[in-house]
Write the structure tokens for this entry.
Amino acid sequence: MKTRIASLTLTLLIFLGFTSIAIAAEDFISIYLYPNIGYTPQCLEFCKKYGVEKTIMHHSYVAKGEEKPYRENELPVICGWMPWRNFWTIQSSEKTAEQLKAWCVQNIGSEHLDEVNGFEIDEPSWGFGDWKQQSIPELEKDAELRNEYYKKFGCRPTLSAERFKDSNGWRNTLQFRQQLFVDRLSNVIEGYKTAFPNKKLLICLSPTAYESGSQMGVDINLFKEFPVYCQLIIDPYFQAFRRPLQWAGYVIRWKRNAMAERPLGGVLQFYDSHRDTGWPVEGYMDLNPEDVYRQPFEYLMNGASNLTVFVMAAFSQKRAQNVEALGRAFDFARENKHLWQDTHPVSQVGIYFSENTFRMKDMWGPWSRMTGLYGASFQTEYTYYALSRMQVPADIISVPFCQESGLPEKLKGYSVIVLPDVKCMSKYEADSFAGYVKNGGTLIITGETAFYDEYGKPHSNPALLSLTQGKLVSAKEHATLKLSNKSLPRKLRGLSIAADCNDATLFYRMASRHPEWLKAKCKEMKFNGYDLFFSEKLPKPVSAAILPGKGALTLAAYEDGTSAITVNNYGKGKVYYIGPNDVTLFQGEVTDSLEEPVNKISREAQCMELFGTIMQDALGKDRLLEVKTAPAMEVAMRRKAKGGGTLLYFLNHSGRPVQNTKVKVALDKKTRSADLQLYQPGSALQKLSGKIIKAGAGQGIEFEIPTLKIFAAVWIR
């Protein structure tokens, strides 16, 4: 099979030059349907009332003619859950198109194919990376693939049994597997477009491919090479049971970062669908109407360009209040598209998602010192949620695996970069971060960052240790963290905080969140797809410490006196080292979303106060955005294209109205006045009064939002 993603993309773009105008239009709201004759009138009423523009249903329903009522009501129908495994190993797109068309005629029928507007490929990444499936076994027995590998690397592929002996070869094999996946999926995409050139194509991506303990995630950076007509949507449902927010913000920001400006939609979960159907997937929560109502806004404020509901079915009616709440959110979102369209994110803070650490799962096994996929994924994600609690908008920064050369450009424009336990780091990555600090950036390093190289081999001295100007102390288990430095706020000085230390405690907590009903259902159905006892395999918690160098301040120490948190100047910039990386992680419970802690002196509150103090100092006086409000408020900031002003978004997760939210936003130095418009669902457009002030080296505007219920947007022009 030829590796031909670039040429394929070019071919498809040329091919679509005649049809792209007709099929590139993007629908804003669509729904997945489970058709039911008795329920169809209600669903059609929902679609009409709330501006649904596209429907998606399983091809088996289309084969029965269930699409007809929707077509008669002028609703486009996408034929969903279309096969891709059947055509996975076919090398010719023409052959794929031929067999695909034959399959569709046989299983759906020509008369129904003429009626549908497009196709949806669901979760093509499912199972990819499992040793027993797809491309790796083929490298062991497929002569053509092995020869192609030899042409590329000058050697034979390093297979699973040899991965510890040849880590460099293993990285090549992993990279080859990633490209092979994209080439094959591209081949299937081209097959669909060749067979049905005038129909739309939708691909639904699931996080299972990067979050499951038994699977390797597909490199989403490669997906941006897909032709523009191929619409992508993200479904975060497998992560539902452990989301402090409504599950979407982190996922959308990460994938938006990787896929640039191509259309990227989000799939909403508005009721406990899988518990209703009895399927034992990772635990859905019972969502109340406010939980449902927040979801569209979290997607849109973080960069989604369209929304898809999963799933509209007869049994959803027992949660009629959720359906009504979803409709109200859609009304506001549809009527105010200008609040999110043609915008780009604005953030001073970047969180580095390490592909090198992430991919080490394949080499080290799921529960090593690398802690597998859960390490890179959870550390990045829970740092993001901690910053959300502090109303500090953060972008997810990543570069494609084995393509670190793009990192320096990615770091530009950020005042602060957080490295959340980035265990594996190449020399190029380390040099890029060192250059970033020398040129004036601020780096926050946590845990065992850069303790290993990109091949998983331990450094004698961690690659970024020189930036702290200190020396490493042998890692061991600690119990407490004492805050003593006079530069800390008075309420933190003298406090002792339990030092849970790196990853282990977080994972123990994750394991305990598997709901009892899920465990019982898995046993009942003899389903072993999810390991409910993964915490037992984790390494013991340890915490790294350093002897601070000259000029470094110790902000916190362990009980034995060794430095746990230090800060020092380096070049024109500043470096913070936080040994017990759990200090920077969101600690809240998922069941009530981003709720405010009841106990103000809890460990969580103390950790967030400490991390907030460090972040405030790191950002300094030249902050783009400062918000004083309830901890349960999530904030995002975006700018309109072509000088259209700045948009601020506020999503209240507390479940109660928040009064007097104070906001300060940096403005261009030449600005003498600004128009402030407040948009809130259920309220008329409101003008806010703002005060122009001096802010850092420039100026800004201060204003206050009197009452903030669930969602609000402020447009500053």
